[in-house]
Amino acid sequence: MLAKRIIPCLDIKDGRTVKGVNFLELRDAGDPVELGAMYAQQGADELTFLDITATIERRDTLVSLVKKIALHLNIPFTVGGGIKSINDVDALLAAGADKITINSAAVYNPQLVTDLAKQFGSQCIVVAIDTKLYNNTWMVHTHGGKKPTDIKTIDWVQEIYNRGAGEILLTSMNHDGTKNGFAHEITRTVSGMVDIPVIASGGAGSMEHFKEVFEQGKADAALAASIFHFKEIGIPELKQYLHNEGISVRL
C-alpha cells in the first residue's frame, strides 16, 4: 500500500502566506520561505504553493518567490496560480518546482492539460478543482473560487483524466477553512473514477479529519493550511497519530 501524504499548502497573496474561510476573509499566516523550510524539516511529504490572486490579477506566478522557497526544500514542491502556457511551466520548473498545478486556465482551455502532459509528463501536472455543492450537484469554480461555471465536477474530472492529468487537487469550497472535516462523499466519488492520486483539500480541523478522509474519502493525500500555519496541529504528531491508527504514512 502506498503511504498517504500530508501536504501543507502556502496560499500566497502579495508575497505573504494567507488563509481565509470559504475562500474569503483572508488573514496573514506568515512568511512563506520560513514556513516552507519549517514544514520540510517537520516531515511534510510535499509542499504546495498557490499564488491565489495571480489569475484574478491577470499576472504570472511569483517566480522569484518560488526560487527562494525551493532553496530550502528537500521534498517535492508543487506550484500553481496564473499558469497559462508551456513557457510558464518551463519558468517554474527552472525556478525549482517539481510539479505545477493548473485550475482556471485548464477550464477555459482544456487542451492546455493535454499539451502540458505531453510536454512535461503527466507526473508533473496536477489539475486543481475548486468545487461547490449546489442542489446536490458539485460544480466547478474558477478564479480562486470567485467564478462559478456550468461544469459538473464529475464531468470535469473525467475530462482532465482523459487528457493526461497526473493528479487531482480537489478542494471543497463549502468546507474550506471551516475546520469541520473534509468533503468525504465527493472525494470518494472522484477517487473511484480515476486511477491517479486524489488530494483532498478543504476542512481539516483535527487529526481525526485526516483519518476520515483517508478511510472514508479514499484520498491518496490530504492538504491543509491554517491548522499547520497557526500551529494547531504539528505534522510529526499528526503522522504518529495516523500511524497508530493503522494508516500507512512515512514517519
Describe the structure.
With 251 residues, the chain is α/β, with parallel strands linked by helices. The protein has a single domain, classed as TIM Barrel, CATH 3.20.20.70. 35% of the residues lie in helices and 28% in strands. It has helices spanning 32-42, 63-70, 86-95, 104-108, 111-120, 153-162, 184-193, 207-215, 226-229, 235-244; strands at residues 5-13, 16-21, 24-30, 47-51, 77-80, 99-102, 125-134, 137-142, 147-152, 167-172, 198-201, 221-224. It has an eight-stranded parallel beta barrel, surrounded by six helices. Strand 1 (5-13) and strand 2 form a beta hairpin. 49% of the residues are buried. The model has no long low-confidence stretch (mean pLDDT 91).
Instruction: Look up the CATH topology.
Output: TIM Barrel
Helix content: 25-40%
Tally the structural domains: 1
Pick out the low-confidence regions.
none
Compute the number of helices: 10
Strand sequence of the main sheet, in spatial order?
Answer: 1-4-5-6-7-10-11-12
The main sheet comes to:
8 strands, parallel, barrel
- CATH class division: Alpha Beta
Under CATH, the homologous superfamily reads Aldolase class I
Please state the average pLDDT score.
91
Give the termini separation.
Answer: 15 Å
